[in-house]
Amino acid sequence: MKHHSIAYLSKQYDKLYNEGQKILDAYNPCMANKAVCLEGERCCTRCRHLGINGCKIKCLICKLWLCPTARNINPKASKKLFALMDKAKSLDLLHFRATKEECLASIKRVYNE
Fold this sequence. Notes:
Layout: H1 6-27, E1 50-51, E2 54-55, H2 60-64, H3 68-73, H4 75-90, H5 100-111
Antiparallel strand pairs: 1-2
Helix pairs in contact: 1-4, 1-5
């Protein structure tokens, strides 16, 4: 993995997160406007970061991931999100249900900064 500054990674995290949100807004692959998830139970149902009004954190992997049902129903959205996920993965920015701060702190520990 190429060594990037934490400031650079922070900006890339925000950029990828925002691009992911634009794709979700444009395609609505999870049909979030409906009360029930395509899979029956939302993928985030038991997440510690889930609040009454939805997610309480900025989590890149959650923003870019789609369940198999949503991927099959929305291949264009899936392809675009996977491209962003590949970029995020190359920067080691995909940390399962972690906040942006937790993700960057983990990378910082690896870099020993």
